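job 3f2a | input accepted
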Amino acid sequence: MPRALGLKKRTVESISDARDSKMSGKIGEGETVLVGKDYFRSPEVNAGFYSRKRAGVADVDPKVMEPFEPSPGIPPRKVVVDRQRKLFASLDIEDLLLELGIDYRNPATNPADWLPLEPFDDTEYDCRMPEEWLAFGETDEGGFNPIPAKGLCRSNDGSAVWRAVLINAYDNERLKFSGYWDDGETGYVELTRINLLFNSEDPRIFAQRVA
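job 3f2a | predicted structure (211 res):
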């Protein structure tokens, strides 16, 4: 059964053991540690992109079903949001898809490739509507900051990889988001929703959507 978490595991006795090992220096930089109940991730994720706000790029919080007013015994909303940011940043969409038997890097012809995925896409997996995503980019000054995401970039040989992209528009008639690549090779791009993973949505749910 796929873990659907895309995380490398390291055997530890308990959360307290992992914490004590880290504090005593037994777990070195770059090694994985136990976080939460079942999650493992690199400690370096705490200094990852999720914690850095980029000038000119929208900072979108993950959607959580938590009250704005804290209740006794329940973590504050800001804490829950920050935990989700850290978790999403630690997950790799390519690893998650590989666990489900989906390898976009392999250009080998698949008998089902003649059918596009878009007509079968289940929009019930969406946590936000397209207009809601774009609303996060609107500034008080009337400008717009693009929304960070990862888009599927296909090559001529049939293979594809997930690349960083900044989204700034949506076409309601063609059902496509548009923006530009954000990994050093700029260029205009249009993507359907099934080929677009926003940084602030759960990669595990998205992987199930594609599968």
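job 3f2a | Residues 48-210 form one domain.
job 3f2a | closed
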